[in-house]
Amino acid sequence: MEPIHPCLLLSKMRPAKFLSISTGFLSPVLMLLLCLAIPAQAAFDQSHRLLSAELKKYADKKGIHYRMWKEHPELLDKYLSGLADVSPDEYQQFSPDQKKAFWINAYNSIIIRIVLDHYPVHGTKAYYPPNSARQIPNLWEVFKYKVAGQEINLYDIEHKIIRREFKDPRMHFAVVCAARGCPTLADSAYTGGRLEDDLNLAAQRYMTDSNHVQYDPEHNVIKVSKLFQWFPLDFLLASAPAKMPMPPPADDEIVFNYALAFAPREIREKYADTKKVEVVYLPYDWSLNDADEP
After folding, report:
1. Are residues 164 and 22 in the same domain?
2. Residues 165, 118: one domain?
3. Per-residue model confidence (pLDDT) at position 237
4. Are residues 21 and 127 part of one domain?
5. What's the average pLDDT block by block, 10 residues per block, for the chain (294 residues)?
6. Would you say 104 and 111 are in contact if contact means Cβ atoms under 8 Å apart?
7. Which string of b and e fits 38-72 if b means at least 16 CB within 10 Å?
């Protein structure tokens, strides 16, 4: 049972119930003193200050400096404790953008902690690079952390909350799965106050990176990350017409239309027949996004 703050106990007691200390209960005066002396639990820091401070130290364009971070994980652990301290009732008071930012940061901080616990990663699965986070057994499912009143793993954060509840395809460019094929981790945490701008920036950064999207209008081809092959319907939400055409668009058409929106005008105009564009899915680089490894 969670401890009851004296203020709450005092507010629920009727005067007739107050007894003297000699009978085993605190007097109203002492209860009031305790109420003033013991602060209520602080509200969650919506600036995500602790995580931002860590990201500025250990994340950059080259990736994440896991080796250095592993030596000083204390503030990351403190941030994770803050996620655990959020009650379901407090979470429900968050704005929609605060909730989005909360879960993006939760995913990113948890996967970093898992990698730190296993760093350096040296696996033997032939179908992933030796240093890949995918070499950690059951990475998505087995490691559970308390967040906002529930024990949850990475799979459920991504697929049952981020994708199912928010339905915002830009979040794919903010959630970082500890691989080079993933988006680059921003050097500051996401916050509700500037979420729209930051998600737009993350999408623009990913979609204009030739490692993830390559335009070839001369051959009527576009090459994109396998991320789009895995979740094509997520990107339909961003470009869906007011009335869904019948039959609905094919997956490749959804992906092409989404990607083309980020291309410069001169590139868009070179695709003569957008109905016959070939969409090619690039190999996904699962090697660890380690800033200290080539």
Report:
1. no
2. yes
3. 72
4. no
5. 43 42 48 48 92 98 98 98 98 98 98 98 97 97 98 98 96 98 97 98 97 97 98 82 74 94 95 90 98 88
6. no
7. eeeeeebeeebebbbebbeebbeeebbebeebeee
Point out the domain boundary residue: 181, 207, 233: 207
Domains held by the chain: number: 3
- Give the domain range for residue 23: 6-37
Q: Write down the pTM of the prediction.
A: 0.85
